[in-house]
Design brief:
nine-stranded mixed beta sheet; Arc Repressor Mutant, subunit A; alpha/beta; 414 residues; single chain; three-stranded antiparallel beta sheet; disordered N terminus; TIM Barrel
Length: 414
């Protein structure tokens, strides 16, 4: 997204990003970015801030003020369905600060059924105690997600993770002991030096730990990270595309056999445990992102929508909120027309097992995804290839199509 001139924070109602009515046909989520970490992993390109002293209260003050100031521009959307604390390592945030943010969110937004509101906090094994988890649960958090990444000691060291294999194994049971009935975790494949055997063993370990939700991500090497620099110099050896695809297939087979639904390219869930918040991104729900580098999407009833992102620096963010009374200027701002959002909706939906709901797509964007002759012909070819299933109500990728979701969307929509 190209940065646009900053708009006057003192006059929010005159800013085009806040004009129009938020689309009430879409559910609403709140994303809270907590940038602070104990260490930066060599593959990480996220907006994080490694500090020995975390400004707990100052950051909480800024986040709460931003929620209170910007919520009015999202209240026309459907009731709040999720609050997600991501990072960074929000498991390091003091629980009283987390509670303050939750309390402000519940006060500012309509919540249809309080018990149904998904509230997630990301945490790292070894960096959060059972007592802290209990305090978070008492504050209203009902879902915790652990960045386990691997159950192999050598690989954890290779990717700069600070927890041990034992701490990885203890994370999920500790959350269960603290009273959490919805526990998620992340694993990574395609890591430097990772073998298929190591990946199989990590999958076996996570199946034994029995989380409710699991994300399996392929390592992406960003150019300006330490891994990116090593790869540029030819010093980073990792599995090739064929080997990574074999790892993806193994996860699909192993986790499916263990009772997990593969409902998005990288996501698996027990029955009823799909990630509510992440699903907002894949289905173009509305979301307000608060905190430094947090992204928002404000779809409008009249068509189209705004995407905007907060400043990346934590200090710039906190100072900006303090000076603007919560209506901090966007660092990046982008308008998306209704046809552009319709194209995005196709690409996103084909990353999920649910695929495209043709009636809903028609309602939101005024056309059926297969209305064009080229799309109809492509759909027939993709069905013959075993990548796509088309019915009167849905356009869904097959398991093979899900493995090549981006290619599938390109062939169907281009």
């Amino acid at each position: 997204m190209k940065p646009l001139p900053q708009f006057p924070s003192a006059a929010p109602n005159s800013c085009h990003v806040f004009e129009g009515t938020c689309d009430n046909r879409r559910p609403l989520g709140l994303y809270v970015h907590f940038p602070f970490c104990g260490a930066r992993c060599p593959y990480c390109d996220f907006a994080i801030d490694v500090r020995t002293e975390i400004p707990h209260e100052r950051y909480a003050n800024a986040v709460c003020q931003e929620v209170a100031s910007k919520s009015a521009f999202f209240v026309a959307a459907n009731p709040l369905v999720s609050v997600y604390f991501g990072g960074g390592t929000p498991g390091l945030w003091r629980n009283d600060c987390v509670k303050r943010v939750i309390d402000v969110a519940v006060k500012q937004f309509a919540v249809s059924t309080p018990g149904a509101l998904e509230i997630t906090v990301e945490a790292n094994p070894g960096e959060i105690s059972e007592s802290h988890l209990r305090a978070l649960k008492a504050a209203g958090v009902n879902r915790v997600s652990f960045g386990i990444q691997s159950f192999d000691a050598a690989l954890l060291l290779e990717i700069g993770r600070t927890h041990s294999v034992q701490q990885a194994r203890e994370a999920i049971p500790t959350a269960r002991a603290a009273g959490f009935t919805n526990v998620a975790c992340d694993l990574m494949f395609g890591l430097p030096g990772q073998s298929l055997t190591q990946w199989r063993e990590s999958l076996a370990s996570v199946i034994e730990a029995a989380p409710d939700h699991l994300s399996c991500y392929s390592l992406t090497v960003e150019p300006f990270t330490p891994f990116g620099q090593k790869e540029k110099k030819g010093q980073l050896t990792r599995p090739d595309d064929d080997a990574a695809a074999e790892m993806w297939d193994l996860a699909h087979e192993s986790l499916g056999a263990a009772g997990y639904e593969h409902y998005e390219v990288s996501s698996y869930a027990r029955l009823g445990a799909r990630a509510v918040h992440n699903s907002l991104y894949w289905t173009q729900g509305a979301y307000l992102g608060v905190g430094c580098a947090a992204a928002s999407f404000r779809p409008l009833v009249e068509g189209g929508g705004w995407r905007f992102i907060n400043p990346r620096s934590a200090d710039t963010y906190m100072l900006g909120v303090e000076r603007s009374h919560g209506l901090i200027n966007a660092a990046q701002l982008e308008w998306r027309s209704a046809p552009e959002l319709g194209d995005e909706a196709v690409w996103l939906a084909l990353r999920t097992s649910d695929g495209i709901n043709r009636k809903r797509h028609q309602e939101l964007f005024g056309r059926d995804p297969l209305e064009g002759a080229a799309q109809a012909i492509a759909a027939v070819d993709l069905q013959k290839a075993g990548w796509l299933h088309v019915s009167d109500t849905h356009i869904r990728p097959t398991a093979q199509g899900l493995a090549f979701a981006d290619e599938l969307a390109t062939r169907l929509w281009d």
